[in-house]
């Protein structure tokens, strides 16, 4: 003999407008989260590496596209070589971004 039991919906807390606004205030900017990475390398280098990963290309492919050596790309990403304004503009055109994210010169 089977017994039919009645299921009850579980109580869930609804997020009100206040809870959503509080959650938004708790978010931290990416620069704060990536402070170790930025200080370890350089912010333009991190941006270059991020754009390269997003486009799914290697340092070798990027170096061939720009006609520079692969170790120059590596040094730029690691903050050992500064990214000049002209190179930043070339990166910006290639990745379709603003050139100021790649150079510290402004």
Folded structure, characterized:
By secondary structure, the protein is mostly helical. The model has no long low-confidence stretch (mean pLDDT 79). It starts with 16 loop residues before the first helix and ends in an 11-residue tail after the last helix. The protein is 57% helix and 0% strand. The relative contact order is 0.11.
Which H/E pattern describes the elements? HHHHHHH
Low-confidence stretches: none
Radius of gyration: 24 Å
Number of helices: 7
Beta-strand proportion: under 5%
**Structural class based on helices, strands and sheet pairing:** mainly alpha
Helix content estimate: 55-70%
Distance between the termini: 80 Å
**DSSP, total strands:** 0
**Silhouette:** elongated
What would the average pLDDT be, to the nearest integer?
79
Main sheet: strands, sense, barrel: none
Note the topology.
Blueprint: H1 17-26, H2 30-33, H3 35-40, H4 43-55, H5 59-66, H6 70-77, H7 85-95
What features would you highlight for this structure?
0% strand; 7 helices
Provide a concise account of the structure shown.
The protein is mostly helical. Helix content is 57%, strand content 0%.
């Amino acid at each position: 003999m089977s017994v039919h039991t009645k299921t009850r919906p579980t109580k869930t807390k609804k997020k009100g407008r206040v809870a959503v606004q509080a959650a938004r205030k708790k978010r931290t900017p990416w620069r704060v989260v990536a402070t170790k990475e930025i200080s370890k390398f350089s912010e333009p280098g991190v941006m270059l590496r991020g754009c390269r990963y997003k486009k799914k290309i290697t340092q070798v492919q990027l170096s061939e596209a720009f006609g520079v050596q692969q170790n120059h790309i590596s040094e730029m990403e690691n903050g050992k070589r500064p990214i000049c304004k002209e190179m930043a503009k070339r990166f910006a055109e290639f990745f379709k971004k603003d050139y100021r994210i790649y150079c510290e010169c402004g």
